[in-house]
Amino acid sequence: MTQASHTPVVAADAAGIAHAVQVLRDGGLVAVPTETVYGLAARADRDESAAAIYRAKGRPSFNPLIVHVRDLAQARELADFDARAEALAETFWPGPLTLVLPRKASACLAAAVSAGLPSVALRCPAHPVMQQVLEQARLPLAAPSANASGTVSPTCAEHVLATLDGKLDLVLDGGPCAAGVESTIVAVRQGGGWQILRPGPIGEEAIAALLGRPQAPTNGPAAVEAPGQLTSHYAPGKPVRLNAVEAVADEFHIGFGPIAGEVNLSPSGDLAEAAARLYTCLHLAAAAPSPRIAIAPVPEAGLGIAINDRLRRAAA
């Protein structure tokens, strides 16, 4: 760390993981690395632990949490899996895919993780540190992004401390996250339909190859069904202008490809690199003295769909 923090930070080695697991089993809050972003983890089976997540993040109580599981067998104890959900889990888990499924009445989960909905959002992460934490804890863990609600998501330990220092018990430092944007969230509907609720690293075409075309969008859900659906989200705390080929005098310019900017998502125009650097660049822009942010155009294709989703919400 570049400066002293109020929250202890430990390396994600064997001793650090064992310490984090004990804190979690005791009901504490731990920031943990995943392949997407850092998560603010707590026991998903205790009301007070789920409440602590909402309190630390300042998160609206109607915004449900993603529950992380060690494998498909543990997930089946919490939700009803039909053949489509099984196919998705077997193909994309462990990995950056979250499934929104009917919650089992027998599921040993705090009511708050579903925010009053009859569904639950489940993910089996691929990051080796998070996998070890889940294996040793032997518990499902609720783990939204480890940042204050609405702010830029964290892809390294320093980002966690920027908004949550002193509000959690431990940060498990596993280095920078590889994917850089949050998981794709898919609702598997009863009656045969499915819908992407939040775009992410796994695209619609890959899912459609297994399930057929998605359900036609409605005018919008009556309630927020999953994280990342709020209109204003991932915000750096300054006005954001999108599709900016050039910046004006008071703007910090985030470039892409040949548009250099003051920092660049990917000088080569690689969308995977841009996704991995997205939140780092937004954190740099938020910390810069310029009062406004301008962001170069990013293609609306492949991972660019997820990147542009986050940028639109940052600018809302």
What does this entry look like structurally?
The chain is an alpha/beta fold and 316 residues long. It folds into two domains: 9-211, DHBP synthase (Alpha-Beta Complex); 240-315, no CATH class. 30% of the residues lie in helices and 17% in strands. The strands form two sheets. Strands 1-8-2-3-7-4-6-5-9-10 form a ten-stranded mixed β-sheet, sandwiched between helices. Strand 2 (30-32) and strand 3 (39-43) form a beta hairpin. The longest helix is centred in the last third of the chain and has 17 residues, at 271-287. It is globular and about 60 Å long.
Determine the structural class based on helices, strands and strand pairing. alpha/beta
Radius of gyration: 19 Å
CATH architecture of the largest domain: Alpha-Beta Complex
What is the total number of structural domains?
Answer: 2
* Largest sheet geometry: 10 strands, mixed
The CATH superfamily of the largest domain is: DHBP synthase
Instruction: Strand order, main sheet: write it out.
Output: 1-8-2-3-7-4-6-5-9-10
Mean pLDDT: 93
Secondary-structure element pattern, one letter each: EHEEHEHHEEHEHEEEHEEEHEH
Give the CATH topology of the largest domain: DHBP synthase
